Amino acid sequence: MKYYNVEGYVRHKLELEEMLKNIKHEINYDEHGEVDYTQMFDSSIIKMWMPLCEALARKFATSQQAIGVMTIRDLISCGYEGLCKAVKKLDRKTLAESEDTEKTIKSFLSKRIRGAIRRQIDKNRGDMRIPEHKYNEIRKNFGKDKKAVAMFFNSVFLSIDVPGEDNMAYDIPDESEPYNQELLNIYLMSLLQQHLSDKEYQVLRLSYGLDCDKHSATEIADKIGIEGNSSYVRVSQLKKQAVDKLIENVDHSQVLDYL
Fold this sequence. Notes:
By secondary structure, the chain is mainly alpha-helical. The protein has helices at residues 6-22, 42-48, 50-57, 64-67, 72-88, 92-97, 101-124, 132-140, 144-157, 181-195, 198-208, 217-224, 231-249, 252-255.
């Protein structure tokens, strides 16, 4: 259960509500009636997005074991700090060029607000301090397991090295037991169906002939409905995108037997 100092929290909410009413004259709008962030002061943008800090803070567990001595109001305050720093880094040119300005700025601010809250939680959770970059490494699993998964999918789907006179590694005979290709293909297709979109799945399936003959990029484009002179480029992009998604989402244990 989240802990609140009720009196202080109510006062905070009333002050925030009053402030949001008073900044209406500070908000600029374009000819389409959309908020024009490129013409607004940083302070006005900060005030507009302060409610986002509480919305994100509420998503963090606030038990003693999870965040130590911090309360929900502490988390909101940390979010405000992250918001202020994030607004100073806003690229107004990028916002002006965005097709959905509201979505772009919310995504940018949310990432940095969550990061600011998480860093303070990490600092207050206990006596042992671990550097922030190490926390990120643990969370994102950029360790040996993730590298092994990347090696597996790159070896299956992407051409990394080309055999030739300069590559002596290819002169070493491979004495390992060969895989049952049919079973491997069936297993790969199950992973593809689990983690990829339909187009990504079809691109990899057809490119490497997992249950059919191999298709060229142009043939794949025709089959999945990609049109245009550079359709084969889009197929190549989908292929790389699909492999990256597999590396990111497949657990090391799922490919351990094939490494």
